[in-house]
Hints:
Blueprint: H1 3-33, H2 38-59
Amino acid sequence: MTATRAKNRFLALWGWPIALGVLTGIGLVCALFSDGGFGDLLSGICLGIVTAVGIWHSFVRSR
């Protein structure tokens, strides 16, 4: 197996969970340290995306 193919398999399996984990981390840190303004907006957007993805996947049938 070539390195490119191994990288593609890794990203196909772990790409979305890593992205959602990063968004969750950014959202939680911003919510913890912000005192209004842009930080609250950023945390709401990041955590809202993660919540929306979770709700969407709960209603989609598996193939």
